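Supplementary Text 2. Reproducibility record for the structural model of the 85-residue chain.

All settings were left at their defaults, and a single model was retained for analysis rather than an ensemble. We include the record here because the model underlies the residue-level annotations in Supplementary Table 4.
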Amino acid sequence: MEVIFTPTFLKQFNKLTPSLQDEVVDRVELFKDKNNHVKLKVHALHGKFNDLYSFSVNYSYRVVFEYTSKKKVLLLKVGNHDMYK
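Retained model, structure tokens:
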């Protein structure tokens, strides 16, 4: 699966601590294999984030993304639950 990073995602990623950045990188690598989607708790979002999806980095942080095709994913945001507000 090809993963594309938006400028917003990269800006938010660069503001994270180095250890959290490492965690995000590890989770994105796991995400590339669909067999890991249950482990990452990939799920559809609702409300103003309708048509978007999310997966867990850790207990507090999530990555919001959208499928652009069966083999391409656009990572939109990374952050804690406040990004849903």
